[in-house]
Specification:
With 101 residues, this protein is mostly beta strands. The protein has strands at residues 3-6, 12-18, 21-27, 41-46, 51-53, 58-59, 63-64, 70-75, 85-88.
Length: 101
């Protein structure tokens, strides 16, 4: 993981059109600002499971796990710098994925 992003003025919804599994990572603000990596949570989503990030939620761009995929993305934009905020993540993180049945 190299970056987390958030959208201060809008929620953001990802609707899977064609995907097997994908990784969802999200967290809230740290007390001093920026993403709180100690509260970062990871989830494996499957075909038919969409995800909506609330306004201001830090998240990693979707990571597709099992091959090519496509999503519809819904998000309101006002054209200001608050539409998207990106911060680099320099802390090494490890995510252990569950084995497929």
């Amino acid at each position: 993981m190299k970056v987390l992003e958030r959208h201060e003025h809008s929620s953001q919804t990802f609707i899977p059109l064609h995907v097997s599994r994908y990784l969802v990572l999200a967290t809230l603000d740290a007390p001093g600002g920026g993403p709180d990596l100690s509260r970062l949570r990871a989830f494996v989503a499957r075909a038919g499971q969409g995800v909506t990030y609330s306004m201001g939620t830090w998240h990693h761009p979707l990571t597709v796990l099992d091959g090519p995929a496509s999503f519809a993305v819904l998000m309101w934009r006002d054209g200001t710098s608050g539409d998207e905020e990106f911060v680099p993540v320099t802390t090494p993180l490890t995510i252990d994925l569950p084995q497929e049945p």
